[in-house]
Batch of 3 targets.
Target 1
Amino acid sequence: MLRKPGRDPGRMPSTASSLALPSGSVLELSSARAEWLAAGAELDVGCAPVNERGARALARAAVEARGAHAGRATECTLALGAGLVVVRLLRLPQLKRAELALVLERKAAAWLDAPVGDVLYQASEMGALDADEPSGERTWLVTAARRGELVALRQELRRAGFAPRRIVPAQLAALDCARAAL
């Protein structure tokens, strides 16, 4: 477990370790590791591997990464990384709202290899991919996660003493922090 800031040349930097937060905490979880970053009077950084699959294993790794803060409810932003959330750009023709919702939900289910009823997704229209494109196609930023896994993860994290205020995709966490600072 890493308890002090530093660079491991064999490891790519993650969103949690590269965010500059004025205050607050970020717990970044991926299928491979948990990272904790608490910004306050002192910077506290921790990292722990995820050795098994499932919500309970993710929560155990989160507790290990959090280290010294164990035993008290800890508010944080939960940033979901690789293996837990999918972030994609999707180009679609203009569709009616109901039809668009069906297409987005089916795409999200296909990306996650999950039943349509077991996906949560969010889509933001990014506009036309190419301003000179007369086709009318629009580009959507879509994030998706498995509903059952996310519910189980939130329950296990709460049992472990975490209180996620927001859940964001790790790839977009920096944007979330910038928006919160406005």
Note: Helices lie at 15-18, 55-66, 97-112, 147-159, 173-181.
Target 2
Amino acid sequence: MRFSLLVVATSLMVASAHAQDPGGMGGPGGGYGRRGSPSRPPAANPLAERALRPPEPSPPPADTMTTILSLDSTQRERYSAGWDSLIRDIQPMRDSMAAQADIVRSAIAQGYQDAARDRIATIDRMAKAIHKRNELFDHSLRDYLTKDQVKLYQKFRDDHKARPLPTSPGNRSRF
């Protein structure tokens, strides 16, 4: 009888100690975190993955490409004008995509899957528009770059798309 009472008392003390720990049970890497939320990321959600996918990277600015492609002053001027126009066109869409992605994440977290799907359709449309505008920019380079420069640019872009630069929440744009 005394042994079972001791086991129950010890169990209650351990449970009480865990309940008072603001980090939750198990500490880092397991159990529950603050306010009962899991300390590990939730299981993969296809909707969230689509919303978190970064938009296609923009072409690099003229300073970068001048060095990589050895642009002369006329080429640099044309590249810079085209790049400025491109960024002016797509930056509002990129900003809107980031805002929509935040809304999707919030909707998913609150259990509103249908609302998230609607927003993802909007994000997908904007991503396609950005892709099309990037392609137009890339195609325009043929008007003033040499064939070798175009090939070098395409290789740079392909490598850059395969290994995009990391972005922070405050800096969603690649360039």
Note: The chain has six helices and no strands.
Target 3
Amino acid sequence: MKNEILKKIEISNEILSIMPRSTEDEKRLFINESKKTYAEYNLYKIQIINELKQRKTHIESIVKEEPYQEYNFEDIICKMKLLNTINTSYEKLRLDKSLLGLKKFYKSNLVDVNNYIFDTLEIFRKVGIILSEKDFFYDESVKLYISELVSVDRSNYIIDNIKIKFEQLYWKAPKIITYIQLNFKSVYFKNIKIFNKYIDKIHKESDKKIEDLNNEYGCKVIERDNYFNSSSKYFLESFVNEKLSLKDYTNENIRKISSQFFDGDVFLKEKTIISLEKTLSEYKTYIKFNFIVEEIRKEILGKSKEKINSGSKLKEISKLEKQLIRAIKKKESLKDEIVEKIIIAYDEYDELYFKEKLFGYMNNKSKIIDAFKFAISYYEYFIKLSKKNDEDITIDEINDNLKELEMFVRSPYNMFINNLEILGGYDVALIVLDRYKLENINITKEDIEKDALDTAIKNISLLCNYYKIAKLEKIDLSKIIEYYKINNLLKKVK
């Protein structure tokens, strides 16, 4: 039909081109003939558009029959974090995050600082402790500012009024935010049994153990991936939205990629391709966060025989706070000096605390994944290692990395990080290569070097998708190409 129409257009153009247009009558005849020609081909256009719409609707109706399934992991992840057996109530209830925000207040604005304070007050309220200005003893300015904040509705307070109050207090006590942060820590440790009891209650009331939740999460991830991997609608939309490119899925490109890695028919290697894709993705994330493994490995190897006791440092802080209260009552000038000692003592406590928890969880037989699990369980420790690895990294980048590592640790597809010991001294790249050489896959060390790894993963993913599309029940690649072209044509003629 296309060739016939093109031939007719050519003839019509030729007829119109030789028609005389000198006189008015000739011009009228030319215009009438042009209108007649336009009407004829506009009718063709309408017929073609209708035909295209029918084909498009037909393909859409095929994939529309697929049941849509939504997957939400928020609830189960929240439960997993609360039932985490590695960290404590301090981390589970996110006190570590809000108090770290106050500690680094100079990187925030007053709205953020207030939100950290509101968050912390809410955490205390959650466990049954209603804080008021009476619980704050580091400075009179702290009492006045806390009194101001607890008297307003967080969702509907006038920040300008708070700013005026804060400015009045700040010039009298420039360390007011530090005082608030230290005071919150003090109240937490005085009430730590209440916090632990709250978490213990959650554990007891939970109908599932953390191991059950981990298995349930893994099963849901596999179920979700199987759904999308076999969804005609998902692949069709992926090409239409250009998440996937049809240029990558030509027979020529698929043959080219296949011949790079495999000798023979790609479809004979389907399970191996999928396994390789997952392993390369695992290796990529492992490389990105290997600095954590290296730091924890150093800690384990350098572990002292001397027992670590963070509790003794808390007793020291308690004594200093009693000295502080006396100094405030007597209006002594030692106050600032004592506060500085408390700040140093808390920093020393944090160092002892993380080592104590690390050595309580990790040992010489621990796996690589255990290092990652520990790091994601302690927000401040994760930040510390991230900053040590890259001093220019921003807090937003750190938070994004934390989310990525959390998802990675929970993945049901991990293989070598679940099995290789952290002190094993393995050449992980060589282990990966040797594993797939046994399957006659032509993958080299150069393919999985940092600069080339993304390309290798992309190419293997293309082969995986090509195989998945070939197995789709409702449509195939030719239908996807047809739909893609129709969709683009209809966009142009609108």
Note: The mean pLDDT is 91.
